[in-house]
Amino acid sequence: MNTKVNICSVELKNPVMTASGTFGSGREFSEFTDLNKLGAVVVKGVAAKPWQGNPPPRIAEVYGGMLNSVGLQNPGADYFIKNDIPFLRQFDTKIVVNICGHSEQEYIDVTEKLRGADVDLLELNISCPNVSEGGMSFGTDPKVAEKVVKAVKKRADKPLIVKLSPNVTDITEIARAAVSGGADALSLINTLTGMKIDVKRRKSVLYRKIGGMSGPAVKPVALAMVYKVCKAVDVPVIGMGGISNAEDALEFIMAGATAVSIGTANFTDPGAAEKVAEGIKKYMSHEGINDLSEIRGIID
Fold first, then answer.
1. 195 class by beta-carbon count within 10 Å (0-12 exposed, 13-18 middle, 19+ buried)
2. What are the backbone angles phi and psi of residue 272, rounded to the nearest 5°?
3. What is the dihedral of CA 248, 249, 253, 257, to 10 degrees?
4. Neighbours of 232 (CB within 10 A)
5. For residue 54, with 0-12 CB atoms within 10 Å meaning exposed, 13-18 middle and 19 or more buried, which class applies?
6. Going by C-beta distance under 8 Å and a sequence separation of 6 or more, which residues neighbour residue 22?
7. Which residues have CB under 8 Å from 260's CB, separation 6+?
8. Of the listed 8, 100, 128, 230, which one is catalytic?
9. What would the DSSP string read from start to end of 102-135?
10. Residue 2: DSSP 8-state
11. Three-class secondary structure of residue 77 per DSSP
12. β 129-130/192-195 pair status
């Protein structure tokens, strides 16, 4: 029974990854789950320089999931290279670095800092606010998305995954633009825009009022977008958004995803990703499936 998948010539032992922003560097989760059993660990967003993130409160529980406006708080690329890569290399799993920036130059700077680093793949987060364009996300304008992907791709020495925002009219348009810019693979979806108000205090629950929604409630939206993108482009797609168990993950694979990422479920169960990987193996054994390619993209 073969659970291996290939993303841009990088072989993962199974299709289960962690979603950036939900697993840190893996250090805090390693006490609760076996990182050796994951296909890849996708670390929290890394910028060229340390980011403080947004003021609290920046997390809120909502029906069917959660809101966050953490603001990509991170200690920066130098700290990541010195401390987190050596830690993760203790485990038999692939390392994917999610890179972020507020301008094209910031994306370039972090990409250049990571040249030569002992990682396997880069994931470009184009949902960051583009400060030069008044805060609009890089991932909501096809021309801007293509431009920043092209700039990063020129400087990257590892295969480049581009993470797409769902907060657009037509995600296939952004997907095609990213591939045109040089994306080797795509991952989706990032969080949906959401809000929560405390009616007793008559104030927004989050300091910045609006945040990103994730969790089980977004899964049908994510699944539809992954399905559409898999039909629109010819690069590997990593599906995510509300995956809580193996059945959820298998839906994304049947929609065409090469791999899947587990995000919000990690907060309610630190062993969620490992359980999903084991669940996929059990399903394959029970159904007599020898290779995931037998069921990948079977939904016409």
1. middle
2. -60, -45
3. 110
4. 16
5. middle
6. 214, 262, 263, 264, 266, 267
7. 15, 16, 17, 238, 239, 240, 243, 249, 252, 253, 276
8. 128
9. SSHHHHHHHHHHTTT-S-SEEEEETTSEEGGGTT
10. B
11. helix
12. unpaired
| Rounded-to-integer distance, Cα 297 and Cα 94, Å | 24
Q: Tens place of pLDDT for every residue, the chain, 300 residues?
A: 899 999 999 999 999 999 998 998 999 899 999 999 999 999 999 999 998 888 999 999 999 999 999 888 899 999 999 999 999 999 999 999 999 998 999 999 999 999 999 999 999 999 876 555 544 578 899 999 999 999 999 999 999 999 999 999 999 999 999 999 999 999 999 999 999 999 999 999 999 999 999 999 999 999 999 999 999 999 999 999 999 999 999 999 999 999 999 999 999 999 999 999 999 999 999 999 999 999 999 999
User: Is 230 assigned a catalytic role?
Assistant: no
Alpha carbons 87 and 81: distance in angstroms, whole number: 10
Q: Are 16 and 276 in contact (CB under 8 A)?
A: yes
The pair of three-digit structure tokens given for residue 39, joined into one six-digit string:
């296909």
CATH topology for 5-294? TIM Barrel (3.20.20)
- For the chain, the domains span 5-294
What six digits make up the tokens of 272? Answer: 């969620």
